[in-house]
Design goal:
alpha/beta, Rossmann fold, 2 domains, four-stranded mixed sheet, 14 strands, 35% helix, 26% strand, binds S-adenosyl-L-homocysteine, binds N,N-dimethyl-L-histidine
Length: 324
């Protein structure tokens, strides 16, 4: 396998004090990226294959239907994907790009070692004209250390991972992407749209219970990382659409009153019914997206959707060159 370049910088959001203080807050939460250890990354792949999780297959259909148009607009020699996961969805786009350009460099950027390994395995056989670069980092903290493109680059942020950011973090992320984009670069963003809440709720409560395992696994990760003693049997998976905020909120809900021993030997009390927020997953309207793009200095060049308008892809350019 190619060497993984680690550009992560030890920062506040990843340290022990921060995690403990999030747990001590009146509204408890855990940083979402802890969902993605080796097992979590594998479970996410399984979620993508469940009947209920419409996001992946819908985005794949849109991508397949419009790949040639996207490539015509972007004409990339480099493809840089944030939160690439296994790169399964991107594979066909890369193959099509290779038919148009002789050599392509694909940068897979992810926090998870397992995801980067899966990405490499997915792509290694495609062509000797494909150079796969694996970069490990946090897309909210390490984006400033990403080198700008040397050749025309297409940035990808798929899967509606943007939905896992609150509004400020989303504006910040999009702004940072706009900042590293050169004039000729493009940015393809995949987002999940507002729809009937029953369909959304089902997607996060699959019958096989894979999302439940994915959610509960965060406790094993935190236990290992910070020597804590969470018992996953004391919690149930709770994922519900919050209509007002237009977001799924995924929690671990305590079924009993119990306590966790903290590293300073203090006991953290968790009441029966108390919830720990592990993830939000926003479902976007056109209005919210337009406001996000405006704040981030991005302009829509083209957009693509499916028949049911469940999911959209936006091809964006940075405004700084369009209207200097
Ligand atoms: N793009 C893929 C995978 C989406 S899952 C798809 O559409 O199917 C989200 C991905 O983002 C995972 O691979 C996870 O490891 C990665 N990720 C989560 N938090 C991250 C962070 N803070 N920085 C970088 N990658 C992160
Ligand atoms: C990666 N992310 C966009 C997924 C989502 O739908 O918010 C993660 C996920 N959580 C539960 N199921 C899938």
């Amino acid at each position: 396998m190619n060497k993984i370049e680690n550009i992560s910088f030890e920062n506040n959001s990843n340290n022990k004090e921060n995690v403990i203080s999030l747990l001590k807050n009146e509204k408890k939460s855990l940083p979402t990226h802890y969902l993605y250890d080796d097992l979590g990354s594998k479970l996410f792949e399984e979620i993508c294959n469940t009947e209920e999780y419409y996001l992946t297959r819908t985005e794949q259909q849109i991508l397949n239907a419009h790949a040639l148009d996207i490539l015509k607009e972007a004409s990339p020699l480099e493809i840089f994907e944030f939160g690439s996961g296994s790169s399964k969805k991107t594979k066909s786009l890369i193959s099509k790009a290779l038919k148009q350009k002789k050599y392509i460099t694909y940068f897979s950027f992810d926090i998870s070692t397992k995801a980067l390994k899966m990405s490499y395995d997915q792509l290694k056989q495609i062509s000797k004209n494909l150079d796969v670069q694996l970069i490990q980092g946090d897309f909210n903290n390490d984006i400033c250390r990403i080198k700008k493109s040397k050749r025309k680059r297409l940035y990808l942020f798929l899967g509606s991972t943007l939905g896992n950011f609150n509004n400020n973090v989303a504006v910040n992320f999009l702004n940072n992407v706009a900042k590293i984009m050169n004039k000729e670069d493009s940015f393809l963003l995949g987002v999940d749209k507002v729809k009937d809440e029953k369909i959304i709720n089902m997607a996060y409560n699959d019958k096989k219970g894979i999302t439940k395992r994915f959610n509960k696994n965060i406790l094993k990760v935190i236990n290992k990382e910070y020597k804590l003693n969470f018992n996953e049997n004391n919690f149930l998976h709770n994922a519900k659409f919050n209509l007002e905020k237009s977001q799924i909120e995924m929690y671990l809900e305590s079924t009993v009153e119990h306590s966790i021993r903290l590293p300073n030997n203090e006991d953290l009390n968790i009441g029966k019914g108390e919830k720990i927020l592990t993830e939000i997953s926003r479902k976007f309207s056109e209005k919210t997206l337009n406001s996000l793009f405006r704040k981030a200095n991005l302009s829509i060049i083209k957009s693509y959707t499916d028949k049911k308008k469940y999911f959209s892809l936006y091809l964006l350019k940075t405004k700084k060159y369009l209207f200097p």
